[in-house]
Amino acid sequence: MINVEALPTEAEAADLLERALRSGLDPESGPARSVADVPAGQILLMPAAVHGYAGVKIATVAPGNRDLPRIQGVYLLLDGRTLAPIALLDGVALTAIRTPAVSALAVRHLAAADASHLVVFGTGPQAWGHVRALCAVRPVERVTVVGRGGTGEFVARCRASGLDASAGTPDAVAGADIVACCTTAREPLFPGDLVPAHAVVVAVGSHEPGAREVDGVLVARSEVFVESRAAALREAGDLIIPGVTRPPANLAELVTGTPRTGSGRPRLFKSVGMAWEDLVVAVAAYERMKG
């Protein structure tokens, strides 16, 4: 098992993902996620092959868990030529790095250079990972936390890291430069017409076609970006439920194209989480461990 200390930081992982996309990785070409419903929840299988390696994440989602995490998992890294297993990683720790890293990569290309006010929905590991990752790519000074529980502790954690942090309500998005939605919500978290035109919204909480964190008003107002059009149109309820009238740009097109920071419309990045992202970060941890 690879020690979690070998994992890159969120900012380092964002650089690795950008490098992979710039080297020609096509996010539209990867295998689809497999989802098996079981009595306690779901088992997810996420295979990928990139640059001499292959791998698969096996993740479980158990909504009824009380004493154990809702999401658990393991990552099996394989030699790309022989498909021989070469390493195991903690799947939860891997996801906790890779998801905010993907958001940070998108925000690096979408947010204004002086974006300083972050509104984060959620108080769990993904919310904290997003605070860390987004502070690494933009000069965030102020964080407004909107949560259902643990908000005070989360605010204190942000303050301990040097940020001006406070608890807020959903209408705080009206003053945001960046909004990060990191929840298990199945219905929109805030009215989409409140988001200012200069803001960037990232939504990462769901990969289910029947769940969403943002409403159709925001989708209609925004320039929309996704990791992969194919994956988003299979899994992103945020886009599927209201319908998307314009084909969204994918992450590779965003990274290799012209940065978009002044369109006069909000920018929405909807992430569902993809297997190639896990593999890129897992390979970096493996190669760091090998020295």
Automatic annotation (TrEMBL):
Gene3D superfamilies: NAD(P)-binding Rossmann-like Domain (3.40.50.720), ornithine cyclodeaminase, domain 1 (3.30.1780.10)
Signal peptide annotation: none
Entry GO CC: cytoplasm
Name under which the protein is recorded: Ornithine cyclodeaminase
Organism expressing this protein natively: Actinoallomurus bryophytorum
UniProt lineage: Bacteria, Bacillati, Actinomycetota, Actinomycetes, Streptosporangiales
